[in-house]
Amino acid sequence: MTTRLRDTLTGWALVAPAMILLVAFTHWPALASFWESLTSTARPRRPSRFVGAANYEQILADPVFWRALTNNAWYALATIPLAVGLALLMAVWVNDRIPGRTFARVAYFTPTILPMIAVANIWLFFYTPGYGLLDQVTGLAGIPSRNWLGSSETALGAVTLVAIWKEAGFFMIFYLAALQGIPPVLAEAANLEGASRWTYFRRVQLPLLMPTTLFVLVNAIINAFRTVDHIVVMTRGGPDNATTLLLFYIYETGFKYWDTAYAAALTVVLLAILGTVAAIQYGWLERRVHYR
Amino acid sequence: MDRRQFIVGTGAAATAASLAAPAIAQGAPTEVSFYFPVAVGGPITKVIDGYAADFAKDNPSIKVVPTYAGTYQDTLAKVLTAHKAGTPPTLSVLLSTDMFTMIDEEAAVPFDGFLKTEADKAWLKSFYPAFMLNSQTGGETWGIPFQRSTIVLYWNKELFKEAGLDPETPPATWAEHTAFAERLTKRDASGNTATWGTQIPTTGFAYWLLQALTIAAGGTLANQEGTRTAFDSPANVEALTYLVDLSRKQKVMAPGVIDWGTTPRDFFERKAAMIWTTTGNLTNVRTNAKFPFGVAMLPAGQRRGSPTGGGNFYLSKTAKPAEQEAAVRFVRWLTMPERAASWSVATGYVATSPAAYETPAMKEYVAAFPPAAVARDQLQYAGAELSTHENQRVVKALDDNIQAALGGTKTPDRAMKDAQAEAERILKSYR
Questions:
Q1: pLDDT tens, position by position, A89-137
Q2: Which overall architecture, per CATH, does domain A55-288 show?
């Protein structure tokens, strides 16, 4: 056996375990979903058949889909900048030598280690009208009780806040690690030059954190479309679809209505959205990121 | 009396019944796989396992293997997935309203084919007729009632007394219900509400609670074939209007959509003086309410009324005939009056046959705790729960529009018209 052939075989053998898992549980299901989205859902008396783009035409005419898409857009627009910004702020804060630093770090990180289902149940209690934590606090100030999850105007905002609270701590860890990697000589040099705290942050820390920011952004966007556990617990998409997000709608279509072909078409749409966003991030944003 | 003693005591009767049933070939026991959900508190899985063990003692030729399968929703998903994979459980407990889904998926077989003698047919007639409404269609019986419930009104006697109402008299009509709720609602000077007069939850099962009002208003939501709905009939619109007015006009019910899950808690915390919820919460309320409370039939509109709810037994279409035969025997054994009574005492569900209420154990229970009889007494006024083809979709159309009306984005009339249009679109292909 030639060395070259052996190297090739070794190389493939090394990537094989990861490849097999990826193909079996990611690539193949994605392709299968695409194929299924072009067929009709099998019913006992009406077997599945090829319907072309009919499912996609149905999506265009489906008001609940558009509602879910709009909701998801607002949800993403709010969670991504707020969770990332908050994470950065917390990281810079607990990176400095402040009294009770360890305590603050643990406190910020705690929401991340809780399961989303538990978090949702805690917040369900916060939002409960009348005797929930939020109403008890606002009640002291004389502000009348509100039904946060029960009215269409506030429900989406309420579940968005939960996601921000849950995610900020997780992203903070990445920023904290990156901040620790910045050589202290830079801070000393900035000090000697008489740069203000703000200038140091803007001119030195922030650019050096850009690779982390890109990574965090990618995760934040994926999470904005992926995390729906709290919707199931807190609102089940209600009231009147005010908190229906795309993935939750896919779940309902697939496992509540058993319209699997339509659910597959919705999945393909979601994949296309995520793919586009990822392409923009890696194609355009990455070129603007400064790697040391 | 201890439940176990009680089951042993009725063992003789069970043996007699099983002798009458057709003999099943000797040899290796026939295995009956059995999926069931748990939807109320308490050690339900232990009770079911106990039943299976006791059944095995009386019927050594049959082995029942019970599997806890999660919520109703999970259980349906598992049964259908297993059915599509070719290995369905022989027997399952699913919502009575899943009947059309099971028929459409060709996953269930009617019980009628297994009931040949006069005694068999009499057994079908032994259940409360109200429970059979969601169990039969097209002259065939697809479900056998097991864990069934209705909606009742719970009221706080202490708050009634404080409001100057007779603590022993619940509202009997819609007008009284509104008037009582107005007296019970406590507001402070700045407009905050400490106690709401009444509470009808509207998440999760909004259609079910609304149905308590539509039946009382003399309306019907869907036909018995599950192919046609009449959401926008005048009676049904009147029912939604009554519900919305409680919250938006009279302001005796909290604004917006009210959570199903926290409703019992709101009652314990004195945030709501009256609540409408399932009889399945009876044991929960009895344990946690720190004040004297009453349980009453729902107030009457044109008439009294409540939908039934809860789960039925379904028989798999693709199981082997011997297994189906054995499963039917297990179902008959479980629905005998003595066992139906023990199940009702253990869970709070309504016992499924009048004969069960004549058993000594049930009489003793009802005598010690009279509220347990309210749901039974209400059964004579009960109607079928909303159930159609593509049930989940049709129900969602109605739920969404009820919530829109409560939120004020649609008038009750508009909401019911929109729900009807959507249901019409979904059901057209089933006629």
A1: 989 888 877 788 888 888 888 888 888 888 998 898 898 887 788 888 8
A2: Orthogonal Bundle (1.10)
CB A87 within 8 A of CB A260: no
Q: Which of A44, A152, A257 sits opposite B390 (nearest CB)?
A: A257
The shortest C-alpha distance from B77 to chain A (Å) reads 7
**Whole-structure pTM value:** 0.80
Of A43, A238, A255, the CB nearest to B257: A238
Q: Are B197 and B266 found together in one domain?
A: yes
Å between B5 CA and nearest CA of chain A:
40
Looking at the fold, whether B297 and B334 belong to one and the same domain comes out as no
Q: What is the CATH number of the domain that holds B17?
A: 3.40.190.10
Inspect the interface and report whether the beta carbons of A147 and B204 lie closer than 8 Å.
Answer: no
Least CA distance to B73: which residue of chain A? Answer: A256
Closest to A257 (Cβ–Cβ): which among B265, B393, B406?
A: B393
Q: What is the ipTM of this complex?
A: 0.73
How does pLDDT run across A173-193, given as a tens digit for each residue? Answer: 999 999 988 888 988 898 888
**Which long-range CB contacts under 8 A does A36-40 form with residues at least 24 apart?**
A36/A260, A36/A261, A36/A264, A37/A261, A37/A264, A37/A265, A37/A267, A37/A268, A39/A261, A40/A261
Domain count, chain B: 2
A150–B257 CB contact, under 8 Å = yes
